[in-house]
Amino acid sequence: MSFNISAWSIKKPVPTIVLFLVLTVVGWFSFISLGIDINPNIDVPTVSIKVTQPGAGPAELESQVTKKIEDAVAGLGNIDFMISTVSDGNSKTTINFVLGTDSDRGTNDVRNAIAQIRQDLPQDINDPVVERLDFSGGPVITYAVKSDRRSVEELSNLVDQTISRALLGVRGVAQIQRVGGVDREIRINLNPDRLQSLAITATQVNDQIRALNINLPGGRAEVGGSEQSIRTLGSATSVDILKTYEILLPQGGSVPLSSLGTVEDKFGDVRQAASLNNQPVVAFQVLRSTGSVLVTVEQGVKAAIKELEKTLPPDVKLDLIFTRADIVRQSYQSTIDELIQASVLAVIVILVFLRNWRATLITAVALPLSIIPTFAVQQALGYTLNNMTLLALALAVGNLVDDAVVEIENMERHMAMGKSAWEAAFESSDEVGLAVIASSATIIAVFLPVAFMGGIPGQFFQPFGVTVAVSTIFSTLVARMVTPMMGAYLLKESEGQRGVIKIFNFKFTLPGGGKGSKKLITEKRQGFQPYRSLLQWALRHRLTTMAIALAFFIASLMLVPLIPKGFVDDGDFGISNVSIELPPGSTLEDVNKVVTQATDIIRQNPVVERVLATEQINSATLAINLKPREERNISQKQFEEQVRPSFGQIPGARISFQSQSPGDSRKGLSIVLRSENPQALNQAADALEKQMRSIAGLVEVSSTASLVKPEILVIPNPQRAADLGVTVQAIARTASLATIGDNDANLAKFNLSDRQIPIRVQIDPKARADINTITNLQVSSQNGRLVPLVAVADIRFGSGPATINRYDRARQVAVEANLQGISLGEAVQTINKLPVMQNLPSGVIQQPSGSAKIMQDIFGRFGGALGLALMCIYAILVLLYNNFLHPLSIMAALPFCLGGALVALMVAQKPLGIYALIGIVLLLGIVTKNSILLVDYTIINMQSGKTQRQALIESGVSRLRPILMTSFATIAGILPLALGIGAGSEVRQPMGIAIMGGFTTSTLKITGSSTSDL
């Protein structure tokens, strides 16, 4: 078969040069415009439904709101799973649709479903908020707002009104979260004794404030021949005027509002706080939208901050606390370095083998001409420069020079026979054309089925696979057009080397060497040729050779149980997160005490740069920013292992490090149990938690089973309530409004020039500390009389669940743990053998979740996709060779690359996860290419009249050099990755180790026993 494109390129070099110049220029401009990220964008369509009902308990919200919402949306198609969390006054249901679902349509479907059941939900809830989750990952960048002149209220307002508005205009910014600070409110704190003496309730005061303090339209008039609109302006223009409002008393008369309590322009109840290195701070975090590029967003925010600082008061300073873009840039630079190192090492290996700078230059040109145009395709497909796309190029370096090596080495072989460079270029390109096309087709056949296998694993594989396939297409074009053209014009015949090829110090004589061939043949007979001897032995002992290879493969499969299994290792990104949980009922002051102790312990470690604490009621999160990697002598993982035991010094709190692995769990391992029977579920979770604590390697084991929180129970007495004409709704509203105020949507508003702030009416917070204040609250009856709360209800202390978690319309409890010295796969396997997991109570089932679920999904999908890839390889080879046997000989080396990869992972004790699997996929393609070189030349020799044995030996000897060249070039290129050099390399290292091990064993198999398969 003749591929005329090579001959055309040799005869007409100008069009070829222009074509690749254009591709290179376009690719370069695409490269400098591509965004930088750490991982491919994984757009999971997600919709959330939030319902708030101040004062409502989790149990009531679950039955009255959450279950009804779940039932309403359950019938919508394409739902992957739904998670609900119910806490005091809040119900949040998050719906994850299957990948590929249109998120806008999903949001509209959910909104319509909720609208249809709105009348079935309690009337006093705030309207459900249905929104698409547009933000991706955690905060991109965090700033502290500081001033030595301004109050916390002023700084908080500055963040909410000025900074947020400026930054939300930056492309890719989805949300600005204020951390710390306070929310401004007009506080009307009523004196309960004064209310009781005047026979008026807090509810009645609140209703009158709402009716008085409001601006309303008044219609339209035509006075003096022109039209005027009528406005009714009842809103107070100042707090002093608001104090003078007359409140009508039920028994007649009125009193000014100020006589009922205090009226202050202050802030709402503080329910969250923040501190930086144990110093109170007002900060803000920037969250990016789904599909945006992290580094691009960070750069846009920094530019906006720089402009914003010019307009801020001189005393206000915005200090950068930390940015995740630094991690991404370090990882990007590390991967770029690996790509450059791989390219340089590959070229050095080729130079060592060829010992000809011209031939090396021609081969080296294939790298930029294959890599740079690939960036144009990446931009067209919407990819970013991330770990996957850059690693694909770095690891494919050996593959990219492979085709050029085959072409140039074959040219040298023809020139050694006495042909000119021009003749050698024509004949060589025609001779190896089928092998080059076939090998490239197999690379594409391997990656395309795997790249589109779907699910979250497919989102990781796709950019990697497409990048390798596209770069391979360009490398094939280079090998078929540029390499023969440059060889024809640049290669020069080297005197004294005609008819002989040297590999290191061993000389291999080629038949038909022209002048001096007899001398060289004599030299060959006298020289030591270990490979020829080994090959001849393998051909004489075919069964023994195959038995050795088969035994190695079977033995390597038996090592699988000894290899750690996981998804993705936690890398060293310089940011650790700590989760703190306190018992329900703890105050913000209690949380602050624990945070202070934990921060002091953490800051004792010299590698810590700063600690940002975000505190809420009952919980807190610490973001620990470590010093740059070059300034510390321990890794992030080692730091966490050093600090973790010290957390045991802090009593009364659960303190644990959060995992950075993908998934919906805060820790490295999450075992989720589901049931409609809360009692059986909690019993199983408690037993599982106790048994998991006994497993070595599991640390910080905890359960999400809610602890009970203290409550004050108001239980209406039906008989007494009926006699006095008091409804349950009146009782509940009286207690709620008096203690926390009205719903946010119903609060009266105080008008400022640029916004409105709420006016909250409630009993003085100091009085709420006395149970007698609650028992003596006045409730309005239907006949207008006021009766004390204690007269119509029993009031006592009780307890109830603090939080209720649900998964797919059933209650769930997650037992979580971090991993220390144990892999994810080993941990899951050990847990599944625990007695409690073998004998779960009736109605309690295990639900795959977190990283374990993704790992299970990976192995499930990967097997099917790999099988399809092998079928595609075989089908393409059958079509190219028109033979059903030769493809089997070519594919015979594939199982042995798997064996070598498994052995390498076992020796290095690196997990068999997504990166290792991607490396194995890459191995399959490259190994197939080398097999094609050997088998293809054997077929050519047999067609020229040689016996099968002669053809095998000659093809083995003549193809040894290009196979070794590509093998050593690939291994040299992978070496920096396998050694774990650079930022974030811990995550990528299993890939390099798997490829190096697999490539080593498969090369031995190809050069040894593949020939015996024929």
Describe this structure in words.
With 1014 residues, the chain is of the alpha+beta class. 52% of the residues lie in helices and 21% in strands. It contains 36 helices and 33 strands. The longest helix is centred in the middle third of the chain and has 36 residues, at 455-490. It is elongated, with a radius of gyration of 36 Å. The two termini are 22 Å apart. Residues 495-528 and 1008-1014 have low confidence and may be disordered.
Question: How would you describe this structure in keywords?
Answer:
9-stranded antiparallel sheet; disordered C terminus; 1014 residues; 6-stranded antiparallel sheet; single chain; 36 helices; alpha+beta
Radius of gyration: 36 Å
Silhouette? elongated
* Stretches with pLDDT under 50, minimum 5 residues: 495-528, 1008-1014
- What is the CA–CA distance across the termini? 22 Å
Provide the residue-averaged pLDDT: 81
Fraction of residues in helix: 40-55%
Quick take:
The chain contains 36 helices and 33 strands. It is α+β, with helices and mostly antiparallel strands and 1014 residues long.
Please describe the topology of this protein:
Elements: H1 4-11, H2 13-33, E1 46-52, H3 58-73, E2 79-87, E3 90-97, H4 103-116, E4 129-132, E5 135-146, H5 152-167, E6 173-179, E7 184-190, H6 192-198, H7 202-212, E8 215-223, E9 226-233, H8 239-243, E10 246-248, E11 254-256, E12 261-267, E13 272-276, E14 279-280, E15 282-289, H9 294-311, E16 317-323, H10 325-354, H11 357-364, H12 366-380, H13 387-395, H14 397-416, H15 421-451, H16 455-490, E17 500-503, E18 506-509, H17 517-526, H18 530-540, H19 542-557, E19 575-581, H20 588-603, E20 608-616, E21 619-626, H21 636-643, E22 654-657, E23 669-675, H22 678-692, E24 698-703, E25 708-716, H23 718-724, H24 728-740, E26 748-751, E27 756-763, H25 765-768, H26 771-775, E28 778-780, E29 786-788, H27 789-792, E30 793-801, E31 804-807, E32 810-819, H28 824-832, H29 835-838, E33 845-847, H30 850-881, H31 886-890, H32 894-908, H33 914-943, H34 948-978, H35 985-1008, H36 1010-1013
Parallel strand pairs: 7-27
Antiparallel strand pairs: 1-3, 1-4, 2-3, 2-31, 5-15, 5-16, 6-15, 7-12, 8-9, 10-11, 13-14, 13-20, 17-18, 19-21, 19-22, 20-21, 23-32, 23-33, 24-32, 25-30, 26-27, 28-29, 31-32
